[in-house]
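G.,

No rush on this.
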Amino acid sequence: MKRTLLMTGGTVLIVSLCMATGWAQMNQTPAPSTSPTPAPATQGPSGQSPAGQAPAAGQPAAPAVPPVDKAEEAAYLAFFNAHGQDPTKQIALGEDFIVKFPASRYLPSVYSALALDYLSSGDSGKMMADAQKAIDLDPDNVDALALTVWATARTVNPNMPGAADTYLKVENYAHHAITLVSTMTKPVSMDDAQFTAAKNNDLSMCYSGIGLIHFKEGKYDQSVSELTQAVQLADSPDPVDFFILGHADEAVNRFQDAMDAFSKCNEAGPMVDRCNAGLADAKAKALTAPPQAPAPAMAPAPAPKP
């Protein structure tokens, strides 16, 4: 089990980078992708409409479309259909697809899905690399943006060279993803409940990431607001978010809120001992603390447009 100790404001923050804690907790069963995923093509031959018809007289010719590569379509369909199964199967299909079709229009969605597969299998390095490749090819890939925000915030120590620039980049990713979620239209393959859950999980990962960054930067009030949104939006809240939220609440002397947060991450799993220690510390401080100040107003998540 690999852990990184981050010293911030006198608090030792344990950021777990293993399957047993935050890495797996957020995506044990990944939510359906909210980013547009191309369906296998049904285009006609080059220079024709999808139905294979010539343009009407007097109308401009439709832009030429490349002919369908049947092998590429079959490989992508096999990869697409493997979603939700054993991640090692989709990883094998995805890596093979990238080698065989390095210029495919499907690469952003393949890299994005592979990032989640590598998250589920515990390979954080490949997960982060493939998420960034998806963003490089498609800067509006919400799932890859959210995953990169969440993971980078947990792995970058504020004392690392270039950490400030990395944090700024990640915050920009987060705000871009949050804006994109607010303007999304529901894919035909999703029902309303699936779409809402998928959007909320992406938002949760964004708020988790910027909440942790602001905690490391000592911006505790902002961190409390953002981490509160992260745990409220998540389909299955990450115990690490509750743990950090507890320390952020302590940092602004809201010990009752800290106790509540620590109480929600000490039920099971490898965070139990640390959450129990945080709970005991918050209880002890609450006995001698002045009355708790009200929590800061939480910034509302952007409402999706109809």
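When you get to it, here's the other one too:
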Amino acid sequence: MKEYLVFIKYATVGITGTALDVGSLYVFVDLLHIPVLVAAAMSFVLAVINNFILNKYWTFQNSGRNVKKQFIKFLLVSVVGLALTEICMALFVYLLGIWYIASKLVTSVIVLTWNFLANKNWTFTETIRPLSAADRYEYNLTIIIPAFNEEKRIGSTLEAIHRYFDQKRITREIIVVDDGSSDDTAGVVNAMKERIHDLRCIRYLPNRGKGYAVKAGVERSKGEYILFTDADNSTPIEEFEKFHPLLSHTTVVIGSRYMAESAVKIRQPYYRVLLGRLGNFLIRALLFNDIRDTQCGFKAFQHRTARDLFSRMKVNRFGFDIELLSIAHLLKCSVREIPVSWYNSPQSRIRPIKDALRTFADLIYIKLNLLSGRYE
């Protein structure tokens, strides 16, 4: 949401809080005959509660569940604001000799600005806590493979992943998400469970898109880190060797085919390269300009980061990578782009024109969501 609209909302809430503060003070003192100092404290608390609720759910549209912690933060900000009011009034009225009404107006602007910035950037900011030794997960890594009609390719990919991690001291689970396949993708996966331990298959109907499939896998993941990769193993699982050391201090690590050190073994047709470059230009122009390759299907996350990012997603199909990275930028996650080896699959189901138009529509949709604050 645009900053000035948020500030207007915050100021409106401040006015209602002031009205409640003054009105309740009158009721407590004149009607209920409560001592002034006690009544002032009670009315102040009522105003703080009112302002907290309105600002949380209307001004900042914050869905964080730790309400107690947020309220304590809000109360602290309000107390500091009250102290700031007293200091400014004493300075303006007694030291500078400014008329008390004018002093109050200037003070109100200063305190309102303080409260707004403190609550926006501290109270109602949902930060992603880095993983610590206190966190416990069932696996070191969850590997998510979205699959749609992949019965011919999923078996070899699962075998490659199994062989790689069988030689590593990394505990892992593999989640294949059957995105409404009409073939026997789920049957092939389930048949391999006897040989490949901790392999699961999630299946639903109808087909909903790659983004939806990855999100479904993330929601069921039990690994400290989460990696999603394509069913055709176009980025070989061995590339995770580069990612693993980075994930302890980087919340998002993504593969890239467009860096100088990248190794594209089997290239895409020229028209797909052209469309990819055009899409990348539009992404840089509309959203962010520090990532070369948003669409490589090899991305890894710290668990908490993945849960937070995917919980905010609105796009289910090809544009979900772009949306995911846009949200990561919005939340100030640390994002690292790593060159990877990549093999184009001749069986790719991408429909260049139709999917390009759909992705462009997703770009506009994501931009509008960013402007309206839907991801915040």
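The domain at 139-372 is CATH 3.90.550.10 (Spore Coat Polysaccharide Biosynthesis Protein SpsA; Chain A). Residues 3-31 form the longest helix (29 residues).

Enjoy the weekend,
O.
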